Structures are given as structure tokens and as C-alpha cells.
Amino acid sequence: MLKVLFEDNHLIAVSKKSGQTVQPEPGKPVSLEEEVKDYLKEKYQKEGAVFLGVIHRLDMPVAGLVLFARTSKALVRMNELFQKREVQKFYMAWVENNLPEKEDLITHWLRRDEHKNFTKAFTSEVKNADKAQLKYQLLKKDGKLSLLRIELLTGRKHQIRAQLSAIGCPIVGDLKYGASAANRDGSIALQSSELHFKHPVGGEALSIVLNHS
What we know:
By secondary structure, the protein is α+β, with helices and mostly antiparallel strands.
């Protein structure tokens, strides 16, 4: 059943399951986009196609908060907010090993290999790489594992996964980026948890937070 976190005339925020794609892909289960369209079609008894704008995406093994636009006006304005970095994006992650610091701003230059679907992180500027930054804060430890709250300052493909791996703290279950073991369900311990921004139409401050209870 679809978990709706926020909904008004212009936006809808929902919770994505690990293993689900945001948009339809051949050979994959029903995407989150299709699920939300079906929900809106049924709830509002809409005939014909339902408009739904994809504003941002999460990697397939990542769970959590995803925001969609219900109007073209909201889609254009939310895209502008993301491009201007006027949307605060927070994630929760369990990682392996000890962190260098309890909280830090980390900077890398990321280079994509689309053929391998892999992002390599460098500590200094290199050719064909994009600058990437995130802040992390240690919330608690459980043995050799640490729970982090992460603010994503740039939005690069596999950014959090690559950057945490580069500091020796891969995300739990993320074999692609160096985790010691896979999770049984194929998930990784990374979740989109909060979005803070000004409403694209009304202009009021809006905070959408995934309830972890």
C-alpha cells in the first residue's frame, strides 16, 4: 500500500520501498511513478492520463521520501529550486567502521562510469569529474556500525554511497561500494528522510519528514 507523506493540489510526497525504481524500467516491478499515478487516478476518479512530474530520483536499493509534482507549474518551479540548491535534502544511513570525525563536511570529485553503473570518488580535482559535497553527523553507534544523518549539498549519481565509501565507511549492505556483506533483501541501509523548501506555488516554508517509528 502506498505511504503518502504529504499531499496538496501541487505536490505529493511518498515513501519508496527499497528495490523499487522511481520511473518505469523494462523488466522491473511496478515503479513508484506508476503506483502514485494509480493512487491519484483512483482517489480523484480521474479519467484518462494523470499528470505527475518527476522532480528527483533515488537509486533502486535506496528507500525513503520521494517528491512528485501534480502540476506543470509546480514541476518547473521545483526543478528551479533543486537547481539553485534551495532544497535541503537529508538522509539516514548505517555505515561500517569508525568515522574519521563525529561530524564533518566532506568534499570529493566524482567521475561516473555509466557502463559499470559506478561512481569513483577522488580527493582532489580530476578531469571529467564533478565536485560533490555532503555533511554528516554521527547519531549513534551499535558495535562496529554507525548511524548518520546526512545533508546532501550536491546531487550527484551515487554520491552518498561513493563518498562514504571513500572515507572508509561504506553503507551497510552496499556491496558495490565496499560493504563487507549484502543485506538479505538486497537493500542498502540508506534512506531519504527529510526535504525542506519553500512551497513552489504558495511560498510558505515546507518540511516533509519521514517518520521512522
